[in-house]
Design brief:
By secondary structure, the chain is mostly helical. It has 14 helices and no strands. Helix 2 runs parallel beside helix 8 and helix 9 packs antiparallel against helix 12.
């Protein structure tokens, strides 16, 4: 393990932690919140900006927390080795120690809880339920011997908490009502987030099988994953069409982008899937911006 530089500048530490939190994955938490904003705007015509911004920041903190816990636990379990195809993890590279990562997890958790308390004050018990279960699933995703990522059920977490739960919860905080449109349109965000997880699992299928990680791709095969990814990209287009939320040309345009992304995916292998992960994140943001 490389020795950490004790004289590292503040700017260097900031840059290091910026990449450790995986900023290019945060579209998964941003998109459903923007979708919730959009539905709320259709009702109220204006946003309560303090609530809207804190909701967005809290959602991002919860995803960063999940990312950090995943990095910490995968290192402790020995899942990060020289065969890893994804971006190198900070602890295994020697950029930070396990103790520093655990401290970062505690800080981000406290930030999420602090912002969550403000949102509970605004939204009441439904937000308590969403917040507690989100924190619980962030831990259960990778922290235990029977973690969600190892059992092949993490897709349900992505579909719901990066989808309709986040969008409907955001809309509820801003309007005081549960809106059907927020649920259906949020389902599109969750589908894309699940597609991101699916591409990640296709890329890592051999490593996951070696470490006993029973993802859907390990269980059902890469062929299933290719069909699954197509469905993940198609569902948001269907949601736009069914809800008639935007014009037919906006829906058709999103569909064409989805087809182009899928063709790139089919031509990819190995580390090339990292580019598909990033592009799928951009597709999630594109969908949310079309809704917004």
């Amino acid at each position: 393990m490389a020795q950490k530089n004790s004289h590292e500048s503040f700017g260097g530490r900031l840059r290091k932690w910026f990449f450790i939190i995986r900023p290019f994955t945060l579209s998964a938490s941003v998109a459903p919140v923007l979708t919730g904003w959009a539905v709320a705007l259709s009702v109220t015509r204006r946003l309560n900006w303090p609530v809207a911004v804190v909701t967005l920041l809290c959602a991002m903190c919860l995803q960063v927390l999940s990312n950090l816990i995943n990095d910490y636990c995968d290192f402790r379990k020995g899942n990060d080795d020289e065969d890893r195809l994804g971006p190198a993890r900070a602890i295994s590279k020697g950029e930070v120690t396990s103790k520093e990562m655990f401290r970062a997890i505690a800080i981000v958790a406290l930030l999420a809880v602090g912002m969550g308390c403000f949102l509970v004050w605004k939204g009441g018990w439904p937000i308590v339920a969403i917040g507690i279960t989100a924190l619980l699933f962030a831990w259960l995703y990778s922290a235990t011997s029977h973690s969600l990522s190892h059992l092949g059920v993490a897709d349900l977490f992505s579909l719901s908490y990066y989808g309709f739960i986040a969008s409907a919860g955001t809309c509820f905080l801003l309007t005081g009502s549960w809106m059907d449109e927020a649920l259906w349109l949020g389902l599109g965000c969750g589908s894309i987030a699940t597609g991101i997880l699916n591409v990640n699992n296709i890329r890592d299928v051999e490593q996951d099988a070696k470490h006993g990680k029973k993802t859907l791709i390990v269980r059902l095969g890469v062929g299933f994953g290719r069909v699954y990814y197509a469905c993940c990209l198609l569902l948001p287009v269907v949601m736009l069409w069914l809800t008639r939320w935007r014009s037919w040309w906006a829906t058709a345009g999103l569909g064409m982008v989805a087809v182009g992304l899928y063709l790139l995916f089919l031509r990819s292998s190995g580390r090339q899937y990292n580019r598909i992960l990033m592009l799928t994140g951009f597709f999630d943001l594109l969908y949310a911006l079309i809704v917004l």
